[in-house]
Amino acid sequence: MRLTNHQILAIRQLANQVAGDKSRVRVFGSRLDDTAQGGDVDLMLELPESVDNPALMSAQMSDLVSRAMHGRKVDVLLSAPNLMRLPIHDIAFKEGQLL
Question: For the whole prediction, is pTM greater than 0.85?
Fold first, then answer.
């Protein structure tokens, strides 16, 4: 995984700040390929309860992590009971790693 321990800790802390301490965060996509270079950071924020404003939560998480990673592009996918599950969620659950 191409994230440092410091970056992983920062992402976890930001997930707790944005979504609460019951949330979990999973990294998926190109960051899992140790032979790749560059690229964005794909995260899935897993929430045990319904989300009132998912677009805002996703944008806040993306912005905070991007700032913590010196402007790196960050895509944030949400998984919550009230949100539609798409094929990208299946990929993130299957291939992603919990942080």
Answer: yes
